[in-house]
Each structure stands twice: as structure tokens, then as C-alpha cells.
Amino acid sequence: MNALQLPTEPPTLSDEKVTLAALSEADVDQLVLNCTDPTAVKWTTVPTPYTEQDARGYILEYVPKAWQEGSALNWAVHDHDGQLLGTIELARVRASAADIGLNFGPHARGTGAAVAACRLLIDYAFDELGLTHLHWIAFDGNWASVKLSWKVGFQEPVFIPGFLEQRGELWDCWHATLLASSPRTAERDWRVPTSS
Ligand SMILES: CC(C)(COP(=O)(O)OP(=O)(O)OC[C@H]1O[C@@H](n2cnc3c(N)ncnc32)[C@H](O)[C@@H]1OP(=O)(O)O)[C@@H](O)C(=O)NCCC(=O)NCCS
């Protein structure tokens, strides 16, 4: 039993740019495009190849089950025309901590949608769910991801060799943390981190 009172279905979270809501079958085609994009394949643990069947299994089975169990809380991120931009999740929910995971399609990157979605999710996780710690883990070299974590206030990332497994191989990672009590905006200058 989880100490947090977690909902078992995704609430809708919205701002002037994006809406976070439950994934549906209407998202299948764009989800396949997002998960077969080479950048997503390189920097995430999506199965590869990724088929329509994978997308249906994710939307109809994996995600609802994870919500029911309180193990991972996933949302679709849409624009206000209803187009799927990406997905975002609170992954590995344990005690009052979780990891943020996200994958946006190429059409949605560089638009500010990902930062808007992160801000909605962070406010919800801390202010509504009562989480105390959020973690951000990115493969070494995924500077778009590390930069996004910086924009929303995550602390200076720490280099962890061989921390993440991707398709049977271990990869070096950057790990950053955001506390519920911390400012949710960048408080230091941006720089690409270096491990040496
Ligand atoms: C991570 C992700 C959500 C970020 O989306 P985004 O905030 O829209 O950002 P972009 O992808 O457009 O990245 C561009 C930013 O990263 C910076 N960036 C990208 N590559 C960089 C590099 N090699 N060196 C330095 N900065 C870099 C750009 O300068 C840009 O900064 P700006 O937004 O201040 O102009 C998106 O890139 C994505 O979904 N990628 C694929 C999946 C993924 O990596 N998920 C995260 C797993 S931890």
C-alpha cells in the first residue's frame, strides 16, 4: 500500500499551451511516430522496433495498470487542437518520490510544450500529490533533456557511470533532483555538464 493518496486515473491538467490527460486509442498513430523517431530511440528505453501493437498495449494495458497500481503515472500531452505532442510520466513512484520521464515528437520539440508539460506535472506532483522529491535521469549527451531539467529548476546534475540500462547495455547518466521546497525555475546559469 502506497503512503500517498494517488488517483487511479489521470486527472486533466491544463495551461494556455498544453493539456495533460489520459492517453486514448486516438493517440496510437502519433505515439508510433514519436517512439520510432531516432532521437527517441537513442535517448529513451522505448522498445525498438515500435509498432502499432506496442502503442495499443501501452495505452490500453500498461498505462491503466500502472495507474491502478500507483507504480507509474502517465499522461498524454496534447495541444489545444487535440494533437498528441508527447507523453510524460511520474515513473518509479516510491514513498514520496518519483522520476520524471518524457518523450515528445520532433514536431513538438523546441516549441515550449515540453517545459509547459513539466511545469504542470511538477506542480501537480508536489502540490496535489504531496511528493517531496522528483528525480531526472538522462543519458550522458542528452543535453536537450538536461537543459529542460535546468529550466524547471532541477539542481546541478550528478554524473553516474553505468546507471541506466537500455536494451541490454549500461549507459552513463546525469541525475538531478528537485525538492518540493525548491524554486521551480532556473536559479543558476545554464551550462552543459562535464564529467571530469
Ligand atoms: C527532452 C525533450 C522533451 C526536450 O524537449 P524541448 O524542451 O522541446 O527541447 P528541444 O528538444 O527542442 O531541445 C532544445 C534545447 O536543448 C539545447 N540542446 C540540444 N542539444 C544540445 C547540445 N548538444 N548541446 C547543448 N544544448 C543542446 C538547445 O540549445 C535547446 O535549448 P533552448 O530550448 O534553450 O533553445 C525532447 O528533446 C525529447 O522528447 N527528446 C526525445 C526523448 C528524450 O530525450 N526524452 C528525455 C529522456 S531523459
From TrEMBL:
The lineage of its organism: Bacteria, Bacillati, Actinomycetota, Actinomycetes, Micrococcales. Signal peptide: none annotated. SUPFAM superfamilies: Acyl-CoA N-acyltransferases (Nat). Residues 18-180 form the N-acetyltransferase domain. Keywords: Transferase. It comes from Kocuria soli. Transmembrane segments: none annotated. It comes from the Bacteria. GO terms for molecular function: acyltransferase activity, transferring groups other than amino-acyl groups. This is N-acetyltransferase.
